[in-house]
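Summary for the funding panel

The consortium committed to producing paired sequence-structure records for every protein in the target list. Below we show the first two records in order, beginning with the earlier of the two.
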Amino acid sequence: MKLVLTEFVTLDGVSQGPGSPSEDPSDGFTQGGWLVPFLDETFVRRTSEWLELADGLLFGRRTYEAFARDWPQITDPDDPYTVRMNALPKYVVTSTLPEAAWDPTTILEGDPVESVAKLKTEPGRELQIHGSARLGNALLAAGLVDTLRLAVAPTVVGSGRRLLDHPGLPVGLQLTKHEVTGTGLLLLEYDATGTAEVGEYEGVGAFV
């Protein structure tokens, strides 16, 4: 399976708490709900299409527990995500979760990089990470992420957990798809290309 990191971020890179002020107030974060003003039909249609490509969902413990609490409670038959989210095979990377009640779920213990690398060899289309920024960062730094999908909101919140904040080597990306919704969301898709290239500008003058 191809590993796809799907994230909602602000213009300053924050991925924490997009859906509501109470979604993730950890570390004193008070700016949650920043994505909601920009939701529109294009966003819903495109993100539901992304979800249709998944043959499995991969989570860290924190995001898994939040999703496992909320998604089984959504009963609206017209919701474009619920049936798919609840039915797909789910995998959670954790050494502290004793059991997983959101069926069907498999707990991946041991080294996350080794566990996910092995999981990627299984047949299927996409193994998608939703949320779980810390896990996504670790796997991106390890070279396991194949594709990065972002919905970038035109807002700056100034604080909160940032998505692309990993201590590994610089990661090269190639833009493969892009779209702007009517509310100004940028929907971007990148393929990972290995270690990012650098160069030296040889023109007249210098950048300041």
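The next record, for a separate protein in the list, is shown here:
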Amino acid sequence: MPLIPEEPQIHESAQGPRATPASGRTAPTPRPVPGPRPVAPSRPGRPGPLRPTPPVQRTPRDVVPAQPAPSGPAATAPTSAAPQIQLIPASAEGALDAAEEAVDLLLESGRAPGDILVVTIGEQHPWAAHELSFGEASYWQQHDAGDDVFYTDAATTSRAASRPVVVVAVNGGSDDTAASALPLALSRAGALLIVCGDPKKINTVLGAGV
């Protein structure tokens, strides 16, 4: 079903602060930062954290979630509920930044780094490109370790294991790519799917599929 960004509210699973839309890129209202972001341990054989420091310091921007998709008779469902869905409006150029800021807020609110999978629809995330330069075996070993945020793309999402939170950056790519990647990302989300991108495009691509 289409994602509806109106009248959003942060869901308990994300446990982040209330937010304002990520589109427009206007100057954000300063907000308290609860503490420094956890630094992942060094990988064996190479110094430095698993996740490189972003080249540009960004000012945290509040996240605006969309209403969760109705899940039918949730009160009587005997099994676990379907993942909640949040939409962060962003342009294709700003979707990756919006996804990074969503990850920052999730970590600040207490989510463990290993709970989070980030999927890019267009260009690869710089971390993934960097780690793949050392070989796929090393890259997927980090995925299997499950102790840090892991970044993948639409082409390899099917190989990624489920995690409690999946963040998708619709940072380009064709409608066909998004149409196949978004439902797959939803299937990998245990509790929460966050999609950063153009709401009209996302709703057009997903239609009633989600």
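Regarding this second record: The mean pLDDT is 74. The longest helix spans residues 95-108.
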